[in-house]
Amino acid sequence: MTGSMWDSLLRIDLSGRKAQAWPVPADLRMYLGGMGTGVKLLADEVPPRTDPLSPANKLILTVGPLTGTQAPMQPQSCIVTKSPLTDGILNCYAGGFLGAELKFAGLDGIVLEGRSPDWLLLLVEDGRVSFHDASPVLGKGTAETEAWMKSRFGQEVRTLSIGPAGERGVAFAGVFSETRTFGRGGAGAVLGSKRVKGLAVRGTRGVGVAQPEQFARLSTENLEQLKAACAEEYNLVGMFSRVGTGAGMGLVNGRGGLATRNHAFGQFEQAAEIDGYAYAKKFYTRAVACYGCPVHCGMLHKFRKADGSESWLRGPEYETMYSLGSEVCNGDPVTLAEASQLCEEYGMDTLTAGVTVAWALEMGEKGVVSEPGLTLSFGNREAILGLLERIGRREGIGDVLARGPRRAAEELGGLGVAMQIKNSGFAAWMPRRMKGTALAFATSNRGACHKRAPIGAEITGQIDMNAYEGKAALVKSIQDRVNAIFTLVSCRFHEFVTPAELYPRFVQAATGIALSLAEFERLGERIWNLEKLYNLGAGHTRAEDSLPERCFEPIKGPASEGAVIERAKFEAMLDEYYAARGWDRDGVPTAGKLRELGLERYASLGRPAPGPRP
Amino acid sequence: MSEPASGWMPARAGFTLDAEKCTECERCMSACALVKTGIVRLAASRISIQRRWPEVPGIHVCRFDDCAGQPCIASCPVEAITNREGYVLIDREACTGCGACVESCPYLAIRMDAEERAFKCDFCAGKPACVPECATFALRAGAGERS
Q1: Interface of B with A in 76-95 (CB under 8 A)
Q2: What is the pTM of this model?
Q3: What is the ipTM of this complex?
Q4: How many domains is chain A partitioned into structurally?
Q5: Chain A residues touching B131 at Cβ < 8 A
Q6: CATH topology of B14-61+122-141 equal to that of B65-120?
Q7: Which of A33, A114, B60, B75 is deepest in the core (most CB within 10 A)?
């Protein structure tokens, strides 16, 4: 044991229905946990050219040193796997209670390997695993599946599941955990390819820390910082605590940065009908938190569906208000809630699902694609809901859309207006409006990622959002720092309030591992480079670090001021970024950089192997 | 567990609860477990949040003098439960593990530990560890107007 870490991963071989507690070796321990553990394990054990939906891929679910402890805002767990959406490395996150339960079960994580012959539900109780027949819930939605698992295994278990989209290999199927979602990159399809419908975890062992008194002081200090932020009227985290992540939509819309109509416009007339304040005003609302979180940004709403029936939804989150709201010109909060529910039921990432639907609606209006029974046009309720259902079932045009926006556009036309990077749909931000965010989207190892972008500084005007200058070094530093924080699996919002210097102090008090802030951030950089090598090995090139054609045309609408990305300036910014990273002009880490990061032995990982893929 | 520890405050033992405000974050539970056992093991918590998703959860904890009749005291065949100036406490050494108090408690606030001894909230001798953890004031110290 290293303080709060058990130094134990549960490896489950699904092909042979065997499980084994695997002691975490010392070199892996230095990656702390969460994303660090996942990325190093995947790089060590799954060759980059592996077919993501083959038994050779692995799904690595991890927690970190602060998970389950009294430190606030540490509920999340992390999945690392090879993505069926991007064909590169994926890291994705969900809040809720599963992470803490894994820790209480005596585990730092679970590695799923191979493929089961039959559909399974897995039950992990204090580190012991049992295999159960999933046929009673096959084809069922995520909420129903998890409710069934609780009735079967006990109400106190914490669960994750996939829906029909994951069963059918939708490339952006998510893994759901009690309404929280490992959304991005198609982890749900990987779980489905392993024929695992759900996982239930029960832990009774508890968790301690290496330095209890110091840890208690830090937790209290941090809790007070967070409480103070929540009490501030204009603090973003405070706004999240009152109405959820949809609080900021008005600000973004006012700045002409709210992606609308498949990113053609930067302002949505009906934004005030679907933002966080609108939901809080129109519907019964109850704030619900993840484990140990004083911010409670989750908003549970009771609403009436269009057919008059009463329903509950936790959310929609801000990103969904964009992807299934402004992006598809849907200003009806009920339709938005139903669309979000459909994604939850089928088990799909609302972001890539919405972006793919938006693209299909535009192509429908242009007469390029059509679908029997649906009028493909923006704002059309039946088209939005109908496309989501067809994707979830892989029926009709949904079968093509289920491969992701780039694959669909490559097949049907309209690639330049498929708002994706590496086939992953854009998160809720406009690269043209915010040049640093443009670079962060383009260079993201998992594709169009908003979690490692200078969004807050750009949208609030702390820095000039139109400037290209200085953004390369800024984006690099954010990517490295957030990667480091994701080794702990802190909530992304935690850092909005928490001073960076608290992280290494938390790590030391939890585990006894002493490291400086610079070393902590260097760990994030090491992970970023390892991810990059993995993607290069999978066949990614500089061309993958780019933006769709639409980003090089001005945004329409007055508030956006015709914001555009100039190609030459973007390429120069990318050169500058590669140089700041110690990479060559093709984005390949140099030998010197790898030596500096202690990654020499991974150099060959970045060279794509010739021949057919294994 | 018996005499209130030094540093006890003469405040009336009890809580003001407002489950409508409870976000189910379980910080009260983890803080309680930590102060009582030294590790975060939720099963050891003297307060528990019962999920009734999506409806408002139940908060299960001793109500002390807000509890009418305090039936746990009368239920105990060996008189291990006493009310000392409002602090309803279980003498763990005297407890025989019969479980009668668990059955008697209308607030589901008494449970049995692994060694078959009853345990419940002791109000941390006047400074309950759970209360400062509650960011929404669903849980406040002091016997309540809204119990």
Answers
A1: none
A2: 0.97
A3: 0.95
A4: 3
A5: none
A6: yes
A7: A33
